[in-house]
Amino acid sequence: MITTVDVETSWQVTSTGGYDPSPFHADNILVSVGINDEYYFTNHSERVDQGCYHKIQSILDKTTLLIGHNIKFDLMWLLESGFKYTGKVYDTMLGEYILNRGIRKSLTLEMSCRRRKIGSKDSRIKEFTDRGIPFQNIPAYLVEEYGRIDVAITRRLFDSQMDDLKMAKNKGLLMTLKMMNEFLVVLTDMERNGININLEDLSNVEKEYRAEFAYLKQKIDKIVYKQMGDTKINLSSPEQLSWLIYSVKPKDKKEWCKIFNIGIDKSTGKNKRRPNYSRQQFRNLVDNNVEKLYRTSAQQCHTCKGKGVIKRIKKDGSPYKNYTKCPDCDGDGYLYTPMAKYAGFRQRPRSVYDVAESGFRTDKITLNKIASEAEGEFKEFIDSIVRHNAVDTYLNTFVEGLKNFTNEKGFLHPKFMQAVTATGRLSSRDPNFQNQPRGKTFPIRKVVTSRFDKGSILEIDFAQLEFRTAVYLAQDKQGMEDIKNKIDVHQYTADIIGVSRQDAKAHTFKPLYGGVTGTEDEKRYYTKFLEKYKDIKVWHDKLQSEAIRFKQIKLPTGREYSFPYAERTPWGGSTYGTQIKNYPVQGFATADIVPLACINIYKLMKEQGVKSLLVNTVHDSIVADVYPGEEDVMSKIFKQGTADVIPALKQYYKIDFNVPLDTDLKIGYDWLNMKEVE
To answer: How far apart are CA 537 and CA 550, in angstroms?
Structure first.
C-alpha cells in the first residue's frame, strides 16, 4: 500500500533567533498527522483523538511505500513519537531536486506544485504562523484543512514526478532517486542517534582559544598603533586592512573598478576578465589612481582631555570635518595632526589579480602568499592576523555552533540535507558538521566522544576518493598505474609546490576542478598534473564540448547537471568551466559512492544486530559510535560495507568501476585522537 503523510508540530525559538521544530527539543510536540484521507490530532488544545496512535500505526503496518515532502522530517517525528515503520520511503523534494538536474530552484512544496500547476497550499494559516502562533493553538479546523491539502498535493506531486521519470530517456535518474531515498533512511537514523558532545572538553577548548585570541588582539593592536598612529583600523574590514598593508586607497572607486574591469559580468554571472597589463603599466595605473595615507597624532580634547578616533583621512592627510569632534564628549578643539611618515607597511601589489573593489585583496589566500615572502615586523603582523582570523572563525563558527545546538543531555542532532548543493553532495546545518576542522591545530573534534561507557569512535575514510573517481571517469591510464603502484598523489603535489603533504591535499584536487591560477609554483603544478594525467585533460575537454552542445552533462549513474547558458569563450574555455569539471567528480564521489557505502554499512549493522550507532558522514568519511566489545565486528562491517561499493555500483547502475577504492580505518576515545586499525 502506498501512503502519503504530512505532520504538523510545534516549534521553539532558538538562542540564535531561529525556529527549532525538531523532535529533539524537550518542549516540542507532535500536533497532528495527515495520512492519506485521514487526519488525526495527537496533541492539540481543541481536539485530540485518543485512539489516533493505534489507527496511524495500523496504516503504517500495511504501508510498503511512505511518501512525503521532506519526508525525513515527518519520518523522524513519527519514529520519535513511538510509531514504527520499516518500509520504503519516497521524498518528493528529492524527486524535484533530481528532476531539476542541478539547476537551483525553490524546492518547497508550494513552489514545486506551482511549477507543475497541480495545486497550492492553504495560505490562511500563514496569518497565525507569521505572528508566531504555534500549530497547537491555531483553530483545529484550519490545521486540518491545511494538512489535508498538503497531503493531497504531495500525492499529486509524486504522481507527476513518476510520469516525468517514466518518460525520461535517462532511466538512471530513477535509480539515483531510489538510492537517495535509501540513503535518506540512513540519515534519519543518524539524526535520531545524534552526536555525543563532551561539554567539559568543549568548555576547556573554548577557554584555551579565547585566551589566545585576547593575546593576539593585544599584539596586533600594538603593531597597528605603531604603523597608523592614532588612526584606528577595523581589521575585520578588507578595505581598512588594505590601507594598513598597502598604505594607499583608491581616489575614485568607480574609476578604479572600470580601469581594472572589476565586477560581475551579467551575461555569465561570473567575475569579469581582468585586463592584461604589463607590470610597468599596472604600477603606473596604481600610482595614478591611489591616494597616500599618513600616520596621525591625536591632540587632546580641550573639554574632557580624552583621545578620540578617526576613521578617514583626506588626501592631504587631514581629518574629515565629521571626525573632528571628540567622541567622548562632543567637545570642540579635538584635532588629528598628520605626521610626516606614511601609514602602514607600504607593500606593492604584484598584478591585476591583487586588485579588489575597494583597494587590494586581503583574503586568506592572499595573506598566506604575503606571509611566505614577508620579513620582520610585517611578517609578524601577517602571521598574527591570519591566526587571529582563524581563531575568531573557530570560536564563532565551530565552538559557538556546538554550544548553541547541543541539548541539555549533551547531544547534537545536525540536520543532514541531500537537496541543497548543486552536485548532490551532502550538507548539514544546526550546526554545519560537514566542515569541522581536522588535526590538532583546532582540536574541536576531541569533544566528540562515545555515549557508551568505555565506548569508542570509529571512522573510515576513502583514500584519495576524488582523484580515483576522476581517474575512472576519464579512464586515465597513468592514474590507474599510479593507484596500482600506490603512488601518493598528495606527496607528488607537495614535492612540486613545496608545502606539507596535508597542505598539498587542496591543490591535488584543483586541476580536477579546472584550477589554473595561484602562485607560480601552484601554476607549475597544475600544468604538470595535466601533462602527467593526459586522459583527464582530454576528458575535461570532452565535458566542455558536451555541455556546450547539449547544455547538460550526465554521470554514469544517470545523475544529470544542466548548463543552459554554456558557450565557448574567446580564450578556448567555456562558461561554467569550473562547474563543468567539478560537478562530475564531486557528484560521483560524494553524492553516489559515499551514500552507497553508508547504505551498505547500515544494512550490515541491522543484519548483525549490533548496539553501535552510525552518527555522521563527512565528505568521504563515515563515523560510528561503537558499543564496548563491538570494536572488531564494527571494523569488519565498515571494511565490508566500503568494499561492497563497487558491487553496488554494478547492481544499481550496471557500472564496472575498474579503479580500486582503498580506505583508512581509525578508532579512538574521541574523534581527534585516533589510531589506525589494521
So the answer is: 20
Specify burial of residue 485 (Cβ count, 10 A radius: 0-12, 13-18, 19+): exposed
Cell numbers found for residue 27: 518542549
List alpha helices for 475-519, DSSP H: 477-484, 489-497, 501-509
Domains and CATH numbers, the chain: 2-167 (3.30.420.10), 206-293+343-394 (no CATH), 406-464+589-676 (3.30.70.370), 474-571 (1.10.150)
All residues at 6 or more sequence positions from 521 whose CB lies less than 8 Å from its CB, including other chains: 496, 497, 498
Q: Which helix (H) or strand (E) holds 156?
A: helix 140-167
Matching residue, cell 583508512 = 664
Choose among 462, 487, 479, 480: nearest CA to 645.
462
Cis check for the bond before 431: say yes or no (omega within 30 of 0).
Answer: yes
Sign (positive/negative) of CA torsion 350, 351, 353, 354?
A: positive
Determine whether 445 is exposed, middle or buried from the number of CB atoms within 10 Å of its CB (0-12, 13-18, 19+). buried
Give residue-wise pLDDT tens across range 154-210. 999 999 999 999 888 888 889 999 999 999 999 999 999 999 999 999 999 999 999
Contact criterion met (CB below 8 Å) for 344 and 294 = no
C-alpha to C-alpha distance for 329 and 306, rounded to whole angstroms: 9
* Type and span of the H or E element at 625: strand 621-626
